[in-house]
Specification:
The protein is of the alpha+beta class. It contains 7 helices and 6 strands, in the order ααβααβαββαββα. Strands 1, 2, 3, 4, 5 and 6 form a 6-stranded antiparallel sheet that branches. The N and C termini lie far apart (about 60 Å).
Length: about 210
């Protein structure tokens, strides 16, 4: 079940000094290539970086120490002349890389390329002018394993049926909770009155009733 992989996937920024197998790299790129794309354009391409000098140049440009420490960097790029949704296409492809990495026992993380740094990155990587990169993805074997997400953390109050309404699922749940509290309070009050009445009756029948306890 894909949900299990989603729950296990965590952002990893600290990697072992261990190369990523070539077949695993191919699987990551295949997963990204077959991601949904606008009008099924499949215009995405990939820059795969193992060279330490290039990693250090990227680190100097956009920062974040884990960039130059990861054994592998994958940069999804796309021809903006061939897609009407370049950012969306790159984002969905990146998510497929994250999930495939988890399935292969690899760690990964999204590292944003700020807009004001994109020209520098394009120059470092020798990218054509008509190509766009919005992020790079460090990949490697995690030094430490993180705990999976807890499915019970999902908040059903975030669900709005049909459209956003003030009287949404979250509102109805709060009403139900309030009613439950009122009902419980009413039951407690009734029990209190019943016990008080019973005690009064027993005292009337036998004034020495309480002395037995």
């Amino acid at each position: 079940m894909i949900l299990k992989q989603i729950l296990k996937r965590r952002s990893i920024r600290d990697y072992k000094v261990k190369p990523v197998p070539e077949e695993d790299i191919l699987d990551l790129l295949r997963a990204a290539y077959f991601a949904p794309s606008a009008l099924n354009n499949k215009s995405i391409e990939f820059i795969v970086i193992k060279d330490q000098k290039i990693k250090e140049q990227l680190y100097s440009s956009i920062g974040k120490g884990f960039i130059d420490k990861a054994p592998l960097l994958i940069i999804p790029v796309i021809d903006i002349q061939k897609t009407i949704c370049p950012v969306q296409d790159l984002s969905v492809a990146s998510e497929n890389i994250f999930l495939q990495a988890e399935a292969l026992g690899l760690g990964s993380v999204w590292k944003n390329i700020p807009e004001d740094k994109r020209d520098q990155v394009k120059k470092i990587l020798g990218m054509p002018e008509n190509f766009l990169a919005i992020n790079l993805i460090p990949v490697g074997f995690a030094k430490t394993k993180k705990e999976p997400h807890n499915i019970n953390d999902f908040d059903s109050k975030r669900i709005h049926l049909g459209k956003w309404k003030k009287c949404s699922l979250r509102f109805r749940e709060s009403i139900c909770q309030t009613i439950s509290i009122l009902i419980c309070g009413k039951i407690i009050s009734i029990c209190h009155l019943f016990l008080s009445g019973l005690l009064g009756y027993l005292m009337w029948v036998n004034p020495r009733f309480l002395t037995r306890f």
